[in-house]
Amino acid sequence: MPTGVAMRDVREQLFHAAERVLLRDGPSALTSRAVTTEAGCAKGILHRHFADFDAFLAELVLDRIARLDHQSAALRDSAGTGTVADHLAGALTTLFESVAVAIISLVTSRDELRARLRENSPTGVPLLTEATAMIASYLAAERDRGRIAPDADIDALAPTLIGAGHLLFADREAGPPDAGALRKVVTTVIAEAVRDARP
Predict the structure, then answer these.
(1) CB of 189 within 8 A of CB of 161?
(2) Which of 39, 42, 112, 190 reaches 20 to 30 Å from 161, CA-CA?
(3) What digits encode the pLDDT tens for the residues 8-35?
(4) Residue 196 CB neighbour total at 10 angstroms
């Protein structure tokens, strides 16, 4: 990008560029030069807006965590409609077909990034922790409507669903899992808890 030409929404452009690099080439290819090259701007642009590259990555992860709020609200609002299994399978697909799997790999591979994120998320793996809370909130809403058993262990079900979903989507080379395979895992995990006639 020529000097003197303003970039609009610089942060978002850099975040989107980083996501494209992550999805295409994986966490090991994500460097400040790769991001700015992908965004079509000078390397200095990134350092003008962020203290360093790990600060940029931390903001990227936190931005993607914040985006879960909308998905979480929509999932909770769906409680009492359709089937529990369909809602859960849809939520896991939406979560893990996005850049989330690559971001989780990024977080686990960079010590400095994890240290920075610990300031906001002191326990668990950032993004997975918030996704687990999203699933738990939905299951609680379904329990309130009588579609999940009152004694169901939501604190065990939610991380089990997130962990199983992550494993199914984690192989970037193979592509996303078959929808039937995901639904089978979901129905197996919730089989003892669901009270919906159509699990």
Answers:
(1) yes
(2) 112
(3) 588 999 999 999 999 899 899 999 999 9
(4) 19
DSSP state letters, 42-95: -HHHHHHHSSSHHHHHHHHHHHHHHTHHHHHHHHHHTTTSS-HHHHHHHHHHHH
Q: For the chain, give me the number of helices (H) and strands (E)?
A: 11, 0
Nearest to 177 by CA among 185, 169, 187: 169
50: left (phi over 0), alpha (psi -120 to 50) or beta: beta
Contact 75, 138 (CB under 8 A): yes
| Segments of the chain scoring below 50 in pLDDT | 1-6, 198-199
Contact status, residue 125 vs residue 108, Cβ threshold 8 Å: yes
Burial class (CB in 10 A: 0-12, 13-18, 19+), 169: buried
